Amino acid sequence: MVIPVYDGAKHLRAAVECMLQQTLTDIEVIVVDDGSTDETPEVLRSFMGDPRLRVITHVTNLGLVASLNAGIEAAQAPLIARMDADDWSAPTRLARQVALFDSDPRMVLSATHFATVDAAGEAHRVIPTFGSRGRLLLAMAAFNCIGHSTAMFRKDVVERAGGYRAEWMPGEDYDLWLRLLPLGSVGVVPSVEVRYLDNPNGISHRMTAMLTDHGQRLAARWLRTLAGDGDSERDDGDQPMLVTVRQWGRASRRVRQNLRAEDSTVREVRMQGLLGAMRVVRGQNVLVRHLVVVGLCPILYVGGQVERLLRKLGNSDPLR
Fold first, then answer.
1. pLDDT digits 0-9 by tens, 29-66
2. What are the entry keywords (predicted)?
3. Mind spelling out the 3-state secondary structure of the chain?
4. What pLDDT, on the 0 to 100 scale, is given for residue 308?
5. Residues of the chain with pLDDT under 70
């Protein structure tokens, strides 16, 4: 387990305790203190009697990506799990993810469902991670659907892929997942094993604009990869709407073909491709949206129109 922390003393104790209380006892917990100026060092010293805990201390703040790569480099275990210092994992989390890797030698990455909570620990919502590999591959061309604090990956594969890259911060995890996906299989524990703190001072809140920009660029690159459109590292800006819609269609077909060749399930892959294509037309004018959607999926279009009509009729008062 690698936990980077910078001035995170407020939540760090709970994060470390939940790791040391895992049902899987043969673990190492590496906390990278990235030049903290608060009580973080004191919190960590209170755990130093446990030989499973290792602390790496940066004299100055080097940033999240440098801390993550330092933790990976220092790890001795072949499997590395991730969690932020203000999140919490269930006692069964590591054991369940390790079991996934034991069941599939080709697995390079695993994740779990997670819940977001407020400062009082009250759950806001549960966010499932797609368990179908085909659906997950396509969904990653729309958004990052693997929670960073739920991830576990093979150390050697991540090092071979080049580790985390600072130029994609704060989407450094999204970038890494997209470089890992072509290298092996992905597994999902179908239960909530991680609680995310919805922290208004967290990176995702402070760097929302950059996170959105990086996410859109990474998603477009991955869509080109799935569609077979050449260099996935190319960054050529926004594609025309119809080009992108066709890319979703090609990506869906290629994913289904590859899954069938592996004797894997293709369940929901076509629908995920249609959903992705429909996302492309959301910003278009009404006429374009209607024409594209009816062309992509007439049954879904007609069903949606009927549902809207019934909803309108249900809200009307016949006595007025």
1. 999 999 999 999 999 999 999 999 999 999 999 999 99
2. Glycosyltransferase, Transferase
3. CEEEECCCHHHHHHHHHHHHCCCCCCCCEEEEEECCCCCHHHHHHCCCCCCCEEEEEECCCCCHHHHHHHHHHHCCCCEEEECCCCCEECCCHHHHHHHHHHHCCCEEEEEEEEEEECCCCCEEEEECCCCCHHHHHHHCCCCCCCCHHHCEEEHHHHHHHCCCCHHHCCCHHHHHHHHHHHHCEEEEEEEEEEEEECCCCCHHHHCHHHHHHHHHHHHHHHHHHHHCCCCCCCCCCCCCHHHHHHHHHHHHHHHHHHHHHCCCCCCCHHHHHHHHHHHHHHHCCHHHHHHHHHHHCHHHHHHHHHHHHHHHHHHCCCCC
4. 59
5. 200-202, 204-205, 230-237, 289-290, 292-294, 296-320
Structure tokens that stand for 42 in this block = 């004191």
C-alpha 254/C-alpha 277 separation (Å) is 15
